[in-house]
Amino acid sequence: MQWKALALALLVEHGFGQGFPVPDGIPAMLRFQCSQLVIERLDPLVSPGSIPSPHLHQIVGGNSFNATMDPSTHDLVKSSTCTSCTFTEDFSNYWTAVLYFRARNGTYKRVPQLPNLGLGGNGGVTIYYIPPHDGTTNVTAFKPGFRMLVGDAALSEPGQDPKVCHRCMPEEGDNSNLNCAAPDSQTLPAEPCVGGIRSVITFPTCWDGVNTDTPDHKSHVAYPTEGTFDSNADGGPCPETHPVKIPQVMLETIWDTTPFNDEELWPEDGSQPFVWSTNDRDGYTQHGDYVFGWKDDSLQRAMDYRCTGDVCDVLEHQTFEESIKCTIPQTVEDDVDGWVTHIPGQEMLD
């Protein structure tokens, strides 16, 4: 069992992280739920100002999310009045593509999300912030205006590294590892999954120390130069071009595909019926966007305190019941709850 899975297992079993720093020998990681803020065709990172953007996203976090979010004028902390995340000082926004089911008759239904193991809310995304687990390497929290992107919505073949992956979940859940590693795959599962489909998006852990963003939203960050991909948070060395260690951000979503497991609804040829909102049946185009919005030095405090779980003495938090009240209306009015003849925006992608 990998160190991340071990940390989670101990957290659940023993309740570590509930208001005090993690004991010696147990890797620290913030792990908390962000409920749905809105399901929306906006993308202020890749398509700023475009209404609508080319494809649908699920968005969580602070309620100042909008189509533009110009970092020179938009202050997520000052502009937001609530957050859909557990920690009330986190007004960051996180968004991913949306998974759909395509029935044999050609109609589509958005796949809902399940709250993750030990967490609550109305689905959405589980967020991780993981400092280097050796406990000695300094980690620098993100600066105001920081943004980054993992994945490529136009990808038509496997990426070089499995930074975005899927897992067919068993009924009782699976914590054999929490990052992209076997049995994860860059493709969507080909068979019905009794516990739903897990999607993981893992962000880089090294920063150039200068730029809070770059035109491609990727060049200012990098992955460690050594070690296997699934040990990025293990303190591997950063490249000289990106010498500053930053927290490893990871987005984990459990898509509840179980209502669609009747194979009589699946295509007659037996092919898998799930489609990302990017109009992708393979699975390569899932992606994650991140806009930093933690209040003051709250994230740095949490990293220094090495909190684990979704309760931390140095952070303010709210209940799941409170977090699900933080929502915003759609800017682009799409039907995202019923059966539809096409995925919203699909006509822009065909």
UniProtKB/TrEMBL annotation:
Signal peptide: 1-19
A Pfam short name: DUF1996
Domain DUF1996: 43-294
UniProt KW keywords: Signal
InterPro entries for the chain: DUF1996 (IPR018535)
Name used for this protein in its record: DUF1996 domain-containing protein
Organism from which the protein derives: Chaetomium fimeti
